[in-house]
Amino acid sequence: MARRYDAVVIGAGNGGLTAAATMAKAGKSVLLLEQHNTPGGFATSFVRGRFEFEPSLHEMCEFGSEQEPASVRELFDELGIKLDWHLVPEAYRMVLLNDPDVKDVTMPFGVEAYTEAVEKAAPGSLPSMKKFLALCSDINDALNYMSSSGGHPDPKVMQKDYANFLKCAPYSTNKVLDVIGMPVKTRKIIEAYWCYMGVDCDHFPFYAYAIMLWKYLTTGGYIPHKRTHSISLALSNRILELGGDIWCSTKATRILMKDGKPCGVRTTHGDVETEHVICDCSPNAVFGDMMDDSELTSAQRRAINAREIGMRGFVVYVGLNKPMEELGLDAYSYFIYDNMDTVDQVKCVNSFEKNHIQASICLNAAIPDCSPPGTTIMSFTTFFGADLWDNIAPEDYVKTKRAVADQIFEDFAKATGVDVRPYIEEIEIATPATLARYTLNPKGAMYAYANSDWDSMLARLMMMKEDEIIPGIRFAGGYGPRVYGYNSTYNCGNMTAKLTLADMKGEV
Amino acid sequence: MSDYNFKVKIIGLLDMLAFKAIVPKRKAILDAGPDKKITGIYGANLLAAKLHPKKQEMKISEITDIPGADAKHYILKGNELAVFRAGQYIAVDLNIGGSVLSRAYTLCSDPLKAKEGVYELAIKRTEDGFASAWILDNWKVGDTVTASGPEGFCYYESLRDEPRVIGVAGGSGITPLLSMARAIASGAEDFDLTILYGSRTEDSIMLKEELDGLVASSDRIKVIYILSEEEKEGYEHGFITAELIKKYAPEGPYSVFMCGPDAMYSFVGKECEKLGLDKKHVRKEATPAPASPAVFPDYPGNIEKEFTLTLKIYGEELKVLMKAQESVLTALDRAGIKANAHCRGGECGFCRTKLLSGEYFIPAQFDKRRMADDEGGYIHPCCTYPLSDMSLLLWHE
C-alpha cells in the first residue's frame, strides 16, 4: 500500500523548504520531493578548485539585523534556523556605460544616508525624494496592515488609513515618479534595482518597486556566511528533525486525481497518498506535465497559458587569484547598464549583441574570508528576455556562452577599469540551459512568472482563491502569490503551508 | 500615514477606482490566454536535456587491443550522444556478479565525433581495477552500454587557460590529452598542446601510433615521450621534472594539465612549483579515491574490521555489510544498490548523502565537500571510509 502523508511538497526550493518545515513543525506528516540530488534549488553552492561559489543570492531583502529582525529572519528564528549572516556593505554601485545623466554612483543603505547621497549626485532631488519616501513609508504600512489582516483587510480602514497606497497601487513606477515630479537624473539613480525584477519601470508597479527599495534601505541586504547552500541544508535538516521525509533524486511525475481533487502523487520512487499538494515548481510543469490535458477545463488552460515566463538567467562565476584590493575593487554590488532608460534596456536583453546589463558581486567585500587568502570570488549576472538559447546547437553551446561571458567582462572593465580576465583561476558559466537543468524551470527562467503590472504580487494576492485552480494544489515559490526573490519565496512557503493547515482544519 | 496627499488623477477617487480594476483586469487577461495544451518544456529545457542527459545508451561497435599495455580501445555508437568537452568522462553502469556500480572513463575521441554518434574509450587493466578487468574480459561487440552524460572539469577553457598548454600524462592518463589533441586537429579546440608522456619503456607507451599521427597532422600538437626505465634515442629519459617541462615549454605563459595517477600529481606538482607556476596555471584531472584507505598515512582505523551499514531508502530500511577496507560507496555497490555516483573521487558531489550516525574517515585531499556539509552531516560516500557502524539516508536516481 502506498504511504500516506498529510501533505506532499513538490520541489525543495526556498518555498518548498519553508512549506515543508512549517508543515512538519505543525506536527503534520509531510514528504518533500526534489528531482535534483540535493535540496535547495537556486539556494545552493558548488565547488570548483579551491572556491565555493554562491549561485544566486546577491543580497537578501527583508532580513534585518539580530536587534531589528525583519520577516525572513523572524521566520528562520521561528523555524529554528541559526546561521551566520553578513550585512552587505552598500546598497549598490551603479555605473552607466552610455547615459547622458549618470555615470557612476555609489549608494549607501539607510534612508537618510541614501537621500543625502542622491542629493549629492543629483542636486535638486530633495523635494521629490521627500514625496517618494513618504509614499514608500505609506506603502510599507499598508502592506503590513494587509498581511496582519490575514488576507482580509477592511476596505474602510484601507480607504481611511492607507489611501495613498490605494491611489498609487494601480500605476507603474515611472507613472508615479512623473506625478511626483522627480527629475530624470534622480529617477535614474533610484531605479537602479530594476534588474532585480527584470521588468522595465513602465511596467513594474510603483508600490512593488517602492517597497523593495524601502526594505533594502531600512533593513539592509544580508548574505549567509557559507553560501545559500547552508540555508537549504539547515532547513532540510530541520525538516528531518521534525519528522518530515525528504526524497531527493526523485521526480514527481503525476498528480493523482479523484473527484477533481488530488489524492496522491506518483514519483519515480513509487506512489504516495495525500490530499494536499504544495508545489514549488512551475504551474506549467504541474498542469502540463504532471496531469492529463483532459483533466483541465478550457478556462484553466487559458489561465495558465496567459502567464508570462520571466527573464532567463545567465551567470558567470569566477575565482580570481588576486585579492580584491589588488584588483582595485571596493564595492560588493555593481549594477552596470548601458543606460537607465529601463524600457530600452528591457528590449536589449532580447539580443546577444545589445545586452550590456549586469548585476555583479564581489563576494569578498561582504565576506572577506569567503575564499582562500589572496583570492577573490566574483559573479556576474545578466538575463535574457527572448528565447535566444532555444536554437543554439549543442556543438555551438560552449562558444556562445563564452562569447557572452567575455562581453560581460569587457563591460565590467569599461565600467570599473578592472579587467578580471588575466586572474581567472576557476570559471563556470551558467546559461538558461544550466538553470533549466538544475531547477527544471521552463525556459531556464530565474524569475518564474514575470512580476509585471497585471500579474504583480498585489494582483496575485488579491486573486489567491481563484489562482488555486484545483482545490488542494497550491503554489509556493516564485510562481506563487508573493512572486520571486529570496525573501518572497521563503515567506511564500510559510504562508502556503499555513493556508494548507487552515484547509486541513476545515476538513475536521 | 504621511501627510502627503498623493493622487494621479485630479480627483483621487478615480485612483481608488483604478485600484478596484486590478482584479477584473487580471481576470480578463487570464481568460484571454491561449487554449492549448500546457507545457513546462521549452527550447532551453530541451537543450539542457541534450547537453546533460541523465543516461545514454550506446552499443559497442568495435574493440581493438592497444599495443603496449593490457588495454583495449572501444568504439561506442549511439543514436544521440551528448557533445562533450575534450577531457570529460562518462560514468558507465556495470553489474558485476550482483554488484551494481558505475565507473568513470575519460572519453578519448574527438568531441566532434559525438555529433555522428561516436564515443571512444581506452580502458587499461589497473592494479585494483575490479571494474576495468571485468570490462576488458567481458565487453563484446554488440553489447549495450549505459552511461551518464559527459561530466568533469578537466577541459581547456580559453577564458581561464593560456593559449599554450603543456599536457603531462602518465600511463592511461593519456586519454583526456588524446581527446584534446584530436579536438585541436579537427578544429573543435583552439590551442597549442605539447604532451609530455611518461611511460616505463618504449613498448609500454599506450596509443603511440594515434599520437604520432596527430603530431604529423597538426603543427599545434607535439608529443615528447619520456621513458623511466629505458634510455633510448629519440626519447627523453627519467621523470617529468621542472627542467624537462622548461625544456619543452613555450616562451611566455602556459598552462599545465596533469593527467595520471596521484603519485605523479604530487611529484609533477612540486616540479611545477619550482617553475613558479601558480594554481591558475596547473590543472589536474580528478582521480578516483583509492579502493582501500590503508594507503593514507593518517588513516586512524583498523582495516580488518567489518561494520553494519543501515540505510533508509525511500521509506524502506535495509542493513548491509560494510568493510573498513572499502569506501562506503563500495559497500553500496556490493549490496546491489544503484547509488548516485559519477567521479568517485569526491569532486562531482553527485553521491552526496545525509549521514544519520556513525564515524568515518575522509582523506583531506579528497574532501571537496561544500563548507556547510561537514557540520551539517553530509558525506560523499565515494571517498568516505567507515570507522564504525553507520546509518545513511540514501537518495538515488
CATH fold category name of the largest domain in chain B = Rossmann fold
Query: Helix- and strand-based class of chain A?
Result: alpha/beta
Please tell me the overall pLDDT of chain B.
96
> Structural class of the secondary structure composition of chain B?
alpha/beta
Q: Strand sequence of the main sheet of chain B, in spatial order?
A: 10-9-8-7-11-12
Strand order of the largest sheet of chain A: 8-7-16-17-18-15-19
Q: How helical, in percent, are the residues of chain A?
A: 25-40%
CATH architecture of the largest domain in chain A: 3-Layer(bba) Sandwich
Radius of gyration over C-alpha positions of chain B, nearest whole angstrom: 27 Å
The greatest interface between two protein chains, and residues involved on each side, is:
A-B, 108 and 77 residues
Number of strands of chain B: 19
Strand coverage percent of chain A: 15-25%
Contiguous uncertain segments of 5+ residues of chain B: none
Ranges of chain A where pLDDT stays below 50 over 5 or more residues in a row are none
Structure report:
The complex is a heterodimer of chains A (508) and B (397). Chain A is of the alpha/beta class. Chain A folds into 3 domains: 3-52 and 71-84 and 226-308 and 452-507, FAD/NAD(P)-binding domain; 113-218, no CATH class; 311-439. Chain A has helices at 14-25, 71-79, 111-121, 126-148, 155-161, 163-168, 173-179, 184-190, 206-219, 229-241, 283-289, 298-305, 324-327, 342-348, 397-416, 432-439, 457-462, 464-467, 486-507; strands spanning 3-4, 7-10, 30-33, 46-48, 51-53, 85-87, 92-96, 104-107, 222-224, 245-247, 252-258, 261-267, 270-273, 277-279, 312-320, 333-337, 358-362, 376-384, 424-430, 473-475. In chain A, helix 1 runs parallel beside helix 10 (229-241). Chain B has 3 domains: 53-147, Beta Barrel (Elongation Factor Tu (Ef-tu), domain 3); 164-284, Nucleotide-binding domain of ferredoxin-NADP reductase (FNR) module (Rossmann fold, 3-Layer(aba) Sandwich), CATH 3.40.50.80; 293-394, Roll (Ubiquitin-like (UB roll)). Chain B is 23% helix and 27% strand. A 6-stranded parallel beta sheet of chain B has the order 10-9-8-7-11-12, sandwiched between helices. A 5-stranded mixed beta sheet of chain B has the order 14-13-19-15-17. In chain B, strands 5-2-1-6 form a 4-stranded antiparallel beta sheet, covered by helices on one side. Chain B starts with 11 loop residues before the first helix and ends with a strand. Classes of the chains: A alpha/beta (508), B alpha/beta (397). At the A-B interface, strand 4, helix 4, helix 6, helix 7 and helix 10 of A face helix 1, helix 2, helix 3 and helix 10 of B.
